[in-house]
Design brief:
Low-confidence stretches: 1-19
Distance between the termini: 59 Å
Structural class: alpha+beta
Strand order of the largest sheet: 1-2-3-4
Number of helices: 10
Strand content: 5-15%
Mean pLDDT: 88
Length: 436
């Protein structure tokens, strides 16, 4: 019976967990991967909770300018001597009251506190945006690594197919006595090497897929496969460095965060200065009571009605330098916030400049690698044809084959490096990641 009960509980828990499972995209395109991570990443959702907490602080700060209201009801017991000893009669006295207070003047502290909480809410939202930007670049790099490896596999499969054809021809030549056993063994070794290269690339692909899967924080048992774009094109159209830097300085969340931090530090200084100013409060309360033996209950409540209203003025005189220290530390915080903002802007400009140089370099390498691969492919095809008729030896063919394989690797590396650098550079300018 107990076993069935626990199985039922586990079943219900499983249904609950299943119900909370995120909705996965039908196709894991780069754009879908990025959008999924923005909505489901644990760190980003944690920052969203911090933003929600900051929003509650703002709501509380807004209410501070309104009066507070508290009610009280108290019940007492009166001990009476009834002649035959002490007797206790319950509910012999009752007091009902309400009190309220409101700050009339505090040197703008309440208003500035609301301003500060609003700034902190905006900063919390910018923290979410910055985290989304960071994970966007991580996903883009991991996604392009998968695409590069997939394209490399296709190229290596073509090379292997060619060497397998050479092995068949070499087998015929060897049996006919046209090539030596050494050359025949060398052809077999090259086939084995090409098979090894292909397997190694396939292993790299699995590793890259797992890497992206872990960035997306998908379950271990989930069969994750990306959907590649129809084509990946290298675009050599560049915005100027100054234009991208200006765009980034005006819209990047880390810069806006620093600017708001400076503004909030100045607001905190105003609040610290308000602490040494007088505080004027309006206070009031309403109360009435009932006592046993003094007449009718409702008549007593009406006759004992009491409603004092008054003003209270608080004047700071000496506080062991607490407020003075707060003011001085607030001034230091302003200087630190300005330095942090300057550092953020400087680092951002440096990152953009490095991205610009990297993009220019990768575009140049792509052009060279593309020409190199095309020429080596033509040479390899010619030598392969000449090998079939025996006009060149095997060593010459293998030398050209190695050059061709290396040119493929160089081309793919240059191509996807250029695509990645272009996406990063455009992302600094405020353009979304898009391989289309």
């Amino acid at each position: 019976m107990e076993r069935k009960f626990f199985l039922l509980i586990f079943s219900l828990m499983g249904l609950e967990i299943f119900a909370q499972t995120p909705n996965y995209p039908v196709n894991w395109t780069l754009e879908n991967c990025i959008e999924y991570a923005k909505q489901n990443n644990i760190s980003i959702n944690s920052l969203r909770l911090s933003k929600n907490s900051a929003e509650q602080d703002l709501l509380q700060a807004k209410e501070a300018k309104y009066p507070s209201l508290n009610g009280t009801v108290s019940q007492g017991l009166v001990a009476l001597n009834g002649g035959n000893g002490l007797q206790v009669n319950s509910a012999q006295s009752q007091n009902i009251g309400a009190s309220s207070s409101m700050t009339l003047y505090h040197a703008g502290y309440i208003k500035n506190n609301e301003v500060s909480k609003n700034l902190l809410l905006q900063m919390a939202d910018l923290s979410v945006q910055e985290a989304q930007n960071n994970i966007t670049l991580s996903i883009t790099q991991a996604f392009l690594s998968i695409l590069m490896t997939q394209e490399n596999i296709i190229s290596l499969e073509g090379v292997l197919k060619t060497t397998q054809t050479q092995l068949k021809q070499g087998d015929q030549f060897y049996k006919a006595g046209n090539i030596s056993k050494l050359n025949y063994l060398q052809i077999q070794a090259q086939v084995a090497q090409d098979e090894y290269n292909l397997v190694s690339a396939q292993n790299t692909l699995r590793t890259n897929i797992v890497n992206l899967k872990q960035i997306l924080q998908l379950p271990t048992g989930y069969n994750f496969q990306i959907t590649p774009p129809d084509s990946v094109i290298v675009d050599d159209q560049l915005k100027s460095l100054q234009e991208v830097q200006n765009l980034a300085q005006n819209q990047r969340p880390e810069v806006k965060y620093g600017e708001l931090n400076v503004e909030n530090s100045n607001t905190n200084l105003k609040m610290a200065k308000a602490s040494v100013q007088p505080t004027l409060n309006l206070t009031g309360n309403i109360s009435t009571n009932y006592s046993y033996g003094n007449g009718n209950y409702f008549n007593q409540l009406g006759n004992n009605f009491y409603m004092p209203i008054g003003l209270s003025l608080g004047i700071p005189i000496y506080n062991n330098r607490i407020y003075k220290t707060q003011i001085e530390k607030s001034k230091i915080a302003i200087e630190q916030a300005n330095l942090d903002l300057l550092n953020t802007k400087t680092i951002l400009n440096q990152q953009i400049e490095q991205s610009y140089i990297s993009l220019q370099n990768s575009l140049s390498q792509y052009d060279s690698a593309s020409k190199q691969m095309d020429l080596n492919k033509q040479s390899y095809d010619i030598m392969n044809a000449q090998m079939k008729i025996g006009s060149i030896d095997y060593v010459q063919l293998q030398q050209q084959r190695l050059l061709y394989i290396q040119s493929i690797q160089n081309y793919l590396q240059a191509k996807y490096t250029a695509v990645l650098n272009k996406q990063i550079y455009e992302f600094y300018a405020g353009n979304p990641i898009n391989l289309k």
